[in-house]
Amino acid sequence: MSFASLGLSLPILDAVTAQGYNTPTPIQSQAIPAILEGKDVMAAAQTGTGKTAGFTLPLLELLSKGQRAPVNQVRALVLTPTRELAAQVEASITSYGKNLPLKSAVVFGGVKINPQMMRLRQGVDILVATPGRLLDLYNQNAVRFSQLEILVLDEADRMLDMGFIHDIRKILAFLPKQRQNLLFSATFSNEIRQLAKGIVHNPVEMSVSPRNTTAETVKQWICPVDKKKKALLLTKLINEQNWQQVLVFTRTKRGANQLTRHLEAEGIQSAAIHGNKSQGARTRALADFKAGTVRILVATDIAARGLDIDQLPQVVNFDLPNVPEDYVHRIGRTGRAGASGQAVSLVSADEFEQLSDIERLIQKLLTREIIEGFDPVHSLPESRLDTRPFKAKKPKKPKVEHRDGQRSGTHKQGNSPSSRNRNRSRSRSAATAK
Ligand code: AMP
Questions:
Q1: Ligand 1 pocket: which residues have CB below 6 Å?
Q2: Could you tell me the CA-to-CA distances from 364 to 32, 96, 246, 388 in Å, in that order?
Q3: Ligand 1: which atom is nearest the Cα of residue 310?
Q4: Residue 28 Cα, ligand 1 centroid: separation in angstroms?
């Protein structure tokens, strides 16, 4: 199948060719024709499947046919859970739409609101936004939606996990009822279906990667190691295996900072990306990482969600996540759209329970490899594959990180997700992992 056969016009096809894509991914070949027909779509697709082009290409096609957006109006709204994802979606829109006269904008918290207001004043055909900042802008009359034609909810599962449900409901209330709705989510839990009921009408449903399977192109393995030797082991692996572009996950922001300092002291260019970093610092770190001036990007789960880095060869789990589904999301950073990748987890004895949960979720035991000189004193017990389905269980002490689509100071703090909320969503993730 080719992009041309999906019903896209020449300016878009040229932009797709310029990106170097020859063949549509499965989500693209299913979603593009359905969206072009004006249907509502509910798609189960993780990051890495090509979902962004799956909705942005037909969005551009549909919008290129109508009238440009009048003052303060928006014709298509894309909601995303994090600033990084918002910026990436807008970057995709800009590159796929480079041959079209459409205007797009991206708004998120943590940066000045005034330039965003100015940009919106002209009217934009596509607005990509995180929910909190969008509400601020709406409440300040900076944006209107009476001409809205299409709504996209990207990574809807993560939006719920991050406590955005009330913001989303508020936003839905001021959108016109008559519109096309596209809902993308890595998983379709009961909660997502519940949310979807109030949004999509007779949707075309599609699913491209079965839930909780990790990409076959990703080689996954673990290094049993003592906790205090993890940083040294990572340094050794980076140097000996000559890894050039590595995304490293830590469980906490503090852990991310500590590791970055350690690597820098070892002469390995590194940067941390997490909720305590300013938007500028995060954007810079990501740009430097992509450009190759930063070799190691150390990230927490929430900050890393949705990061789009082409064909990332190497992911390291410096700590295992408490929520096993986060492992699948982390691994989703590599081996994208058919490219191969490698994911290694440094696992200490105290993480055995997390390891067992992950192996139970992905239904496979991870290959172990002990690196010479790093034989753990506290040995990691042997795993046995547990084939029973997951049951809801109390979350382990969840670490709360501020959500990324932060609102500006003008918005009431009362709506911020409390740690109670977050706990609830964590137990939900565990409950829905089957
Ligand atoms: P996404 O799932 O939208 O985050 O996309 C994952 C990655 O796949 C991105 O880096 C895209 O640039 C890339 N990609 C998207 N569509 C294609 C395609 N048809 N062929 C090759 N790569 C693609």
A1: 21, 23-25, 28, 47-53, 308, 310, 336-337
A2: 34, 38, 24, 13
A3: 10
A4: 10
The rounded Å distance from CA 295 to ligand 1 centre is: 22
Domains 3-207 and 218-368 share a fold: yes
Task: Give the per-residue pLDDT at 209.
Answer: 58
What are the residue boundaries of the structural domains of the chain, listed by start?
3-207, 218-368
pTM (two decimals): 0.61
Q: Whose CA is nearest to atom 15 of ligand 1?
A: 50
- HSE-CB at 40 with a 13 A cutoff on CA atoms is 16
The CATH H-level superfamily of 218-368 is P-loop containing nucleotide triphosphate hydrolases (3.40.50.300)
CATH 3.40.50.300, applies to 3-207: yes
Measured CA to CA, the distance from residue 159 to residue 196 in angstroms comes to 13
Q: Which of 218, 334, 336, 340 to mutate to test the pocket of ligand 1 (most atoms within 8 A of CB)?
A: 336
Question: Distance between CA atoms of 280 and 340, rounded to whole angstroms?
Answer: 31
Q: Tell me the per-residue pLDDT of 42-60, one tens digit each, with 9 for 90 and over.
A: 999 887 788 999 999 999 9
Residues of the chain with pLDDT under 70: 209-217, 305-311, 333, 335-340, 388-434
pLDDT score, position 363: 79
